[in-house]
Specification:
Blueprint (H helix, E strand, L loop, with lengths): L2 H19 L5 H5 L2 H12 L6 H14 L1 H7 L7 H17 L21 H12 L4 H10 L4 H7 L7 H14 L12 H4 L8 H13 L9 H16 L5 H13 L3 H12 L4 H6 L6 H8 L1
Length: 296
């Protein structure tokens, strides 16, 4: 395996991700406006939804319409359950007014119950505990202090937010909103950095090949944790930041490879120091391919 070559290719794939897919935002754009930071978060929160843009638009519309009440809420010593119910109802009605079916499973506006929170309750709690209602600022402040576990746990307490979306958002905050992510000193690096590894179909497809060709001891851990550890070790070997190989593999699979079979063949060839399959598809699918061709 040519580590330098793969690193170069992965860095190009990451650059493409930030320019053409998930526009890299300025930290200042998020820190000055809690509603803007919330809107950015919804791109992750609703990524599983068929009507992604409608869910985003409706959630922003409803929060803007209730902004004065929300500002009052953040000053209150007790959470306003009635406002939470009103906003949830307004949101549901707006979704259905556009002839869309309301899906509570992906509804971050859903009223809090037991150990699951609405996004409204989440923002109220972080404002009370961390003195900010800005979700991006909240995450950045914890990451700067080497703490990823706290924001991971609080994010996954929100309705509709599980491991995949939380790690997806944390990964992108880490890589795009911190000025020097390589300088962050994590409390427990080998464990903390697992929270920057969302496992989607393409990443898992690549890991199947990596594990097959480079066996690792599973010990007593879940399949998901094992795969995340494998990818984390792979990133260390390539001297990449945590999450970069994750992004690169997703771009290579979802945006460049024509099929899972071809994608897995490319990964297998990578590990053997060969790039035939990637050369064959370079130049066919999108503007990144020309840049890739220069590297292989």
């Amino acid at each position: 395996m040519d580590k330098n070559k793969i690193k170069q290719i992965f860095e190009i794939l990451c650059k493409y991700y930030w320019i053409d897919i998930q526009k890299k935002e300025s930290p200042q754009d998020h820190l000055k406006d809690w509603l803007g930071a919330f809107k950015y978060f919804t791109r992750y929160a609703y990524e599983r939804s068929v009507k992604v843009q409608q869910y985003i638009d409706s959630s922003i519309k409803v929060l803007k319409a209730n902004k004065e009440d929300l500002n009052d809420l953040f000053l209150c010593t007790e959470f306003n359950k009635e406002l939470e119910e009103k906003i949830n109802l307004d949101y549901k009605n707006d979704i259905e007014s556009h002839n869309n079916k309301y899906n509570p499973k992906v509804d971050i506006m859903r009223c809090s119950e037991k150990n699951k929170k609405s996004i409204l309750r989440f923002l109220y709690d972080i404002n009370k505990d961390d003195n900010t209602k800005n979700i991006a600022e909240y995450v950045i402040n914890h990451l700067k202090n080497g703490d990823v576990k706290t924001p991971y746990n609080t994010l996954t307490s929100i309705w509709g937010i599980g491991d995949k979306i939380a790690t997806f958002y944390l990964r992108d905050c880490f890589l795009s909103l911190l000025e020097n992510p390589s300088k962050i000193l994590f409390k427990n690096p080998d464990e903390d950095k697992l929270h920057f590894q969302p496992l989607d179909t393409w990443v898992l497809s690549a890991l199947e090949i990596i594990v097959k060709m480079r066996p690792m001891d599973k010990k007593k851990m879940s399949k998901g944790t094992f795969y995340k550890k494998v990818l984390l070790e792979f990133e260390k070997e390539l001297e990449l930041l945590s999450g970069q190989a994750n992004i690169a593999l997703w771009v290579l699979g979802a945006k460049i490879s024509p099929s899972k079979v071809v994608f897995q063949k490319i990964i297998q060839e990578f590990l053997n120091g060969d790039y035939k399959e990637l050369k064959q598809i370079a130049g066919v699918y999108n503007n990144i391919s020309t840049i890739l061709s220069e590297q292989i």
